[in-house]
Amino acid sequence: MITADVVSFSYGRTLVLDGVEVAVAPGQVVGLIGPNGSGKTTLLRTLYAALTPRAGLVALDEKPIGDLRPRELALRLAVVAQEGSGELPLTVADTVLLGRAPHLTTFQRPGRGDHRIAAAALARVGVRHLADRVFAGLSGGEKQRVLIARALAQQADHLLLDEPTNHLDIRYQHEVLALVRRLGVTTVVVLHDLNLAARYCDELVLLDTGRVAATGTPDVVLRPEVLEPVYGIGVQRIATDDGVQLLFRPLDHEEKPA
Ligand SMILES: Nc1ncnc2c1ncn2[C@@H]1O[C@H](COP(=O)(O)OP(=O)(O)OP(=O)(O)O)[C@@H](O)[C@H]1O
SUPFAM superfamilies of this UniProt entry (predicted)? Predict the structure, then answer.
């Protein structure tokens, strides 16, 4: 379980998170949604201790995250961040093997079991054929899938993902999020696509300029009266055989005479 308890954070004097509360129950997939600059990435970074809140507490199973040693944290929490993993001249196979590092002692090399786990992680995101390629030479979508494979190889019981569907084609947007759901690990995922959020998240946290504007199931949060004031866009909600779908229209356009 991961919780953010009345978390505030500032970059310099600018308050970017203001008393944010998030609680992710074991095995739950919680989506962080909200407009550009609303604080999603900043919140995610406080959840994996890359940023220290100015006030409030982030805890993993009720233990303050700041009290966990880096290796302990890496065994519990896998992260697929926006900033990627640098441009080290590593092969894809070696990049994914890095996910095994927290399971090894300082001078221990990955063993056969680690290679098997890394290969299985690559297969799960459909990029096993890229194993011998250099990571830096991959397309954006291929890189994204490899970074997700690295997180899977880490076998942590918490997973934090910042826009994991960025760069992915439509099929892999769904495959990756369906896979995340199937993993059954406690997950926080930043998503821009609200229809993906509707389909794959148990709960959503809607941020608006650093505050929680709404929280609850997709059915509760993804309503025109909730979304329109936050995003400033017209929202139509349609019930289909396949669940709720949202359609969007620019408000300005509608208000202007033809
Ligand atoms: N390193 C930084 N220094 C100063 N301000 C920052 C820094 N990183 C982010 N900010 C500001 O903090 C606010 C929240 O940014 P954040 O990246 O968390 O938003 P976001 O919701 O993830 O946005 P997006 O949807 O555009 O990715 C923004 O106003 C942003 O300009």
Answer: P-loop containing nucleoside triphosphate hydrolases
Give me the interface pTM, i.e. the ipTM: 0.98
Residue 248 near residue 232, CB atoms below 8 Å? no
Q: 42 CA to middle of ligand 1, Å?
A: 6
Alpha helix (H) ranges present in 70-223? Answer: 70-76, 92-97, 112-124, 140-153, 170-183, 194-200, 218-221
Query: Domain 2-222 class?
Result: alpha beta
Q: Which atom of ligand 1 is nearest to the CA of 17?
A: 14
210 lines ligand 1 (CB under 6 A): no
Residue nearest to atom 12 of ligand 1 (CA): 16
Is the alpha carbon torsion for 54, 82, 2, 151 positive or negative? negative
- Mean pLDDT value of segment 134-155: 91
For residue 211, how far is its CA from the centre of ligand 1 (angstroms)? 13
User: pTM value?
Assistant: 0.92
